[in-house]
Amino acid sequence: MNEKGNIVLFIAIAVPLIIVLPPLIMELIPEAKIIFQVISIFMLYTTVRGYLGDGPLTIVIAAILIYFLVFKWFFVFASAYMFQLLLSIQVFSVVIWGIGTRLRNPATGQ
């Protein structure tokens, strides 16, 4: 059997399933939706505050983002956030792997 093709097939099936998982969980368990909304509100506010600092403009922009991303288009935002999270984990795993291979001693292989 072609082992290289199996991993590509696995990734092609697993990534869409993982992206669809948050909206599915939020439909089945309403408490999970509330918890994820609260986490998203804090995440959006701290991100805007990190870029703009404290002030009235921060509150206005954060409120607009929270209204649209958390209350209006939440299922799309949750899927996009999950995709971004997956992407960042994959990128950092490649970086960690690269650092690990560069730190090995070529003479011993460890």
UniProtKB/TrEMBL annotation:
The chain crosses the membrane at residues 7-26, 32-48, 55-75, 81-100. The keyword Transmembrane applies. Keywords: Membrane, Transmembrane, Transmembrane helix. This is Uncharacterized protein. The lineage of its organism: Archaea, Candidatus Iainarchaeota, Candidatus Iainarchaeia, Candidatus Iainarchaeales, Candidatus Iainarchaeaceae.
